[in-house]
Amino acid sequence: MDAITTLDTPDHRQYGGSISHLDTAFDAAFKQHKGLTWLPWVGDLYQTSPSRMLLLGESNYNWEKDKTSNPQSWALVDEEVNHQLLTRIFVAKHALGKRVPARFSKNIERLLLDEPDPQEDRTTHQWRSSSYLNLVQRPMTSQKMRPEWSDFAAGWKVVFPLIDLLKPRIIIHAGTGHLKRAAFHAALIAHAGVIRAESCSPPISKTFGMSFRITTMHGHQVHVVMVMHPSSPNFSRLKWGGNVAEVLRAGAAG
């Protein structure tokens, strides 16, 4: 496998050189995986975790273009956003240890641990026990840009083979929009997967949660739970916690 290089940027210098609590056992397969732009995060406790949870986010953005008109600054951030370590640096920077707060990671932790302000040892253990990647495998060039149907469809084509590789028991999917659901169904059919059970929760802030029990074409069974995107200003762990609590208990029980 080719060596993974870092960029000469503040984030790469601080977080990219030696990322702690990372399992690289899947990296050779990741680097051969067609369509995978960023190496997923796999925590060092993931393979022995009872739940083997995959956190599925949505997109990566070049936020800098909304902050400054300096093309040199844009270019530097473009390099970072397109770099294969982006997802892992996000976890190292925003989820582990003395981190920089981010709405997505903090709300995911609150949701999964069912606490308003969980302690660092618990949040670190959660990330060490999880895997994580974003569904959309091309960067959004600004904060205002949004993924299209084709992005979600292409993303699920990448994710379904990864499910058979990583073998998660639970997938927490950030977002419940109709384009995401339709892309999920289309990809499931294309990969000869089967939905064994499907349910829809009552609306929360006008958003319906979805839950699917599926079997992949290679026979792996996984529970997919779609919740409001944790970065949404309307997201509430108290309202959405019920959608995942039962699934988490079942996953922990094996």
List keywords for this structure.
7-stranded mixed β-sheet; 7 strands; 254 residues; globular; single chain; alpha/beta; Uracil-DNA Glycosylase, subunit E
Summed up:
The protein has nine helices and seven strands. By secondary structure, it is of the alpha/beta class.
- What's the CATH class, please? Alpha Beta
Q: Helix amount, in percent?
A: 25-40%
How many discrete domains?
Answer: 1
Q: Residue-averaged pLDDT, rounded?
A: 86
The number of E-state strands comes to 7
| Cα Rg | 18 Å
- Pattern of helices and strands: HHEEHHHHEHEHEEEH
Q: What would CATH call the architecture?
A: 3-Layer(aba) Sandwich
Major sheet size, sense and barrel closure? 7 strands, mixed
Global morphology: globular
Point out poorly predicted stretches: none
Main sheet: strand order:
1-3-2-4-7-6-5
Gap from first CA to last CA: 34 Å
Total helical elements = 9
Report the structural category: alpha/beta
- The quaternary structure here is single chain
Protein model, in words:
- The chain is α/β, with parallel strands linked by helices and 254 residues long.
- The protein has a single domain (22-252), classed as Uracil-DNA Glycosylase, subunit E (3-Layer(aba) Sandwich), CATH 3.40.470.
- The protein is built from nine helices and seven strands.
- It has helices at residues 10-16, 27-31, 71-81, 86-94, 103-113, 120-128, 149-166, 178-190, 237-252, and strands at residues 41-42, 53-57, 130-134, 170-174, 194-200, 210-215, 221-227.
- α1 crosses α4, α5 packs across α9 and α7 (149-166) crosses α8 (178-190).
- It is globular and about 45 Å long.
- The two termini are 34 Å apart.
- The model has no long low-confidence stretch (mean pLDDT 86).
